[in-house]
Amino acid sequence: MRPIEAPDLPSIVALDGKVTGIPKPNYFKELYDLLGTGRRPERIILVAEEIGEIGEIGEIKGFVIGEVREWVFGTPRCGWITAIATEPAARERGIASQLFESISHAFHRAGADTIRTLPPRDDQTVVSFFRSQGMMAGPGIELERKLR
């Protein structure tokens, strides 16, 4: 696990596109510019890199994105995981759990003592993963309204 670097962006875009079915290169470039530069410790993008041969760059097998925020809808300082993904062929190897632990430690170092996320209710794989990490329903209820 390590912080993202600019050369990782194409791998992250490809992995996210494989997992979600929607490539988002501009979105990830903007996220990197905002969160991934390492200038602010409360803005975090970590990658899970498979270690290659000596001197060989490893392949990205997963990533997690998050940010420590205060007073979002009245809640005190906490870490928000906004995305987590692993290479489908590498699942069941504990990569997502390691990413979760790594971002948890980064959130704690940035002064948070709670983690929150908003997974899609119907994505049982993601919901089950977060529950396996000890997460449960929080104090909020997500509400939405379609705009015309």
Overview of this protein structure:
The protein has one domain (about 1-130): Aminopeptidase. It has 4 helices and 5 strands; from the N terminus they run βααβββαβα. With about 150 residues, it is of the alpha+beta class. α1 (about 10-20) crosses α2. The model has no long low-confidence stretch (mean pLDDT about 85). The radius of gyration is 16 Å and the shape is globular. The longest helix is centred in the C-terminal third of the chain and has 15 residues, at about 95-110.
How is this structure best summarized?
By secondary structure, the chain is α+β, with helices and mostly antiparallel strands.
CATH superfamily: Gcn5-related N-acetyltransferase (GNAT)
User: How much of the sequence is in beta strands?
Assistant: 15-25%
Strand tally: 5
Number of H/I helices: 4
Helix content: 25-40%
- H and E order: EHHEEEHEH
What is the 3D form? globular
Oligomer: single chain
Write out key terms for the chains shown.
5 strands, five-stranded mixed sheet, Aminopeptidase, 32% helix
